Amino acid sequence: MMKNRTKITISIIVILSIAVLLKNYGCGNSAPKLKAWSSPADEINITGNDITLKLIKKDNQWRINEQEYPGDGDLIESIEKKVRELKLLDLVSEKGFYDKYDLTDETGIVVIVKESGKLLRKLVIGKSGSTNNHSFVRIDDKKEIYLASITKSDFIRSVPDLRDKKIFDVKSPDIKSFSISYAGKNFIFQLNPNKDNIDKADNNIDNNIDDNAEVKNDSPKWICKGYENIILNDSSIDSILAVFSPLKAGEFPEKMVKENLRNKLCTVIIESDDRKIELLIYDKKDQGMNLASSSESEYVFTLGNWQVNKLFIKDLNGLSVKK
């Protein structure tokens, strides 16, 4: 008799354990699996908590609010992905009580995703659950309240957060020449024609040469016009070129226009096969960073110290090969 009771008790414990495991792994609960859409969204609206964001995709470029600032495509599409792949964990209520969970349009974060004017999903995000990784949500104005693996912080973004910081992107192999004017000096850097000729000669070397023989081309890749006698360090020049690939803004100061900028500090001209890029850096600073403008952007932006310090060249000592 005692053995039978023990077996029954163990069986009950096993069944309850399995039920808990199934629930934790999303099986057997009452939360439906949301269907993800296949066509990419072209409009995302986020409101609530003093946030009003209207993100519209035009000509394959995300734009922000009525100003149509260029947006960071990867960041904005990650927001869409969070809504598209939303996972509901559990049904909390079918009776409303939206105020209790901050799930009204006035108290929650409302995210509306559309494609060609068609509603793909409306999501209202309310209070956090028992963990900071979960929140109470409503879907498409339906009455049910669910617990979901999402948080308000995923959508509390400012316009500066979402703006595309890339001003231009020109790769080192595409650059034919670049010049830097700073502190009364103008340095024009060009590809070394001798380097090209030697490289071509290296490619035509007789194949009968001993495999152990090493052909060295110590000629620098770059020369500075008027200072051809100075041997430039390839790594030092590559460090400068890395600033342009890509050149990213720190911030975009509000209410500043290019036409009003004064006291130019440094001018950089970059030439490639298909374009000529101008970068201007100014003496005035915003939040500790130099103001700048470029032919590749209509906006005033800032650059960090690590960027401008590589461009503020007073002489070639720091760029030359040490003897």
Fold and architecture overview:
- With 323 residues, the chain is an alpha+beta fold.
- It folds into two domains: 132 residues, no CATH class; 139 residues, no CATH class.
- A nine-stranded antiparallel sheet has the order 4-3-2-1-6-7-8-9-5, covered by helices on one side.
Number of domains: 2
On the 0-100 scale, what is the average pLDDT? Answer: 87
**Strand order across the biggest sheet?**
4-3-2-1-6-7-8-9-5
Q: How is the biggest beta sheet arranged?
A: 9 strands, antiparallel
Give me the secondary-structure topology:
Layout: H1 2-24, E1 43-48, E2 51-58, E3 61-64, E4 69-70, H2 73-84, E5 88-93, E6 109-115, E7 118-128, E8 135-139, E9 145-148, H3 159-162, E10 166-168, E11 175-182, E12 185-191, H4 193-203, E13 222-224, H5 234-241, E14 247-248, E15 264-272, E16 276-286, E17 289-294, E18 297-303, H6 305-311
